[in-house]
Amino acid sequence: MVAAASVVVVVGIATGMLSALDEGGGTDQARPPEVTRSPRLQSLPVVPPSPSPSPSATRSASPSPTPAEKKASPRPTPKKTGKQPRTVAASTRLYRHPESQILEWVRAHRDDPRRPVIESRIADHPAAVWFADFSPGTITSRVRAVTSGGARQGRVPVVVPYAIPGRDCGGHSQGGAPDLDAYDDWVDRFAAGLGSGEVVVILEPDSVAQAECLSAGERADRFASLARAGRVMKDANPRARVYFDAGHSGWHAPAKQAGWLKRAGAASADSSDGIFSNVSNFHTTSDEVAYDRAVLDALGGPASLGAVIDTSRNGNGAPPDGEWCDPAGRKVGRAPTLSTGLGRIDAYLWVKLPGESDGCKGSPGTFTPSYAYDLAR
């Protein structure tokens, strides 16, 4: 199996990247209007397989997850009335959440000789906030704490919902919701915390590119839930920009990835602003730009759809031996920005926070200062 996002969290409470703390406490009350599970989007004709590019990362195959419980006669989402507001262009100011493992380390190690380099080249940059533990009772308040923090500063937060059932196909980042019914409810609660300001949503890394580990029926059910998730989030906050998983340039051929993305709702303006790629991986920005544009061309959909690229660790490109776990010789990539100057490339983001281990130089998902220092210098 080809791995896209390496290890971002361990099972249970989120430790990878920036993990949003429960700042609100208690049971959440606010909920968005109910949106029912959508039926599966119509399957596309099978695209003849193309020769796969050499993958940059491999793992031993894991057993497929247990099939999700089938739903009886899912109802379509109620039709919207009135014209929906169009998503506005995001500001160029990204939000740095004040709580993360790397910031905790910087505050606690002022005398460490590595601290100035790690602080200036990694910790001072904005990065995504991951929500990777399945905690329905507190997810709204935790998301709201991040989005309201960004709104107070006039900056744009980047949030990562990561709770799809069977995530990571049983690998190191396994976990998530127990089934798709529970996931849909969690998404409703997540969306209720998005507020009304600008926010970028990186929807479920690996959920599309890694779907080959699922049966055809499980894959169709997952894609229906992802399409629904995009609609729910954009209904809850029309200024949210929602991006879907495109894997990376060393994984699936663009036509194959685009076919799956279309079934997951990524070509619809009601649920999507485009795609993301290279999460936790190392492929060069130029390779990802070419790949993402090819996927978008094959995907179709509105001309407004764009792509965001994780540049957190791609400064030296992918290692030639295909190593995916904390490979040596890598370095941080382009600084995060919502203004790339390139057509159809909406942002460079640090989705994976540099220095948080894939599991080889430290425990999976934990900040490892020696690794961060190697990346930063």
Outline the structure in words.
This protein has 377 residues and is of the alpha/beta class. It has one domain (85-376): 1, 4-beta cellobiohydrolase (TIM Barrel, Alpha-Beta Barrel). Helix content is 26%, strand content 9%. It has 8 helices and 8 strands; from the N terminus they run βααβαβαβαβαβαββα. It has helices spanning 101-108, 115-123, 139-153, 180-192, 216-236, 254-263, 285-299, 369-376; strands spanning 18-19, 129-131, 158-161, 199-203, 240-245, 274-277, 306-310, 345-349. Strands 1-2-3-4-5-6-7-8 form an 8-stranded parallel β-sheet, with helices on one face. Helix 3 (139-153) links the parallel strand 2 (129-131) and strand 3 (158-161). The radius of gyration is 19 Å and the shape is globular. The two termini are 32 Å apart.
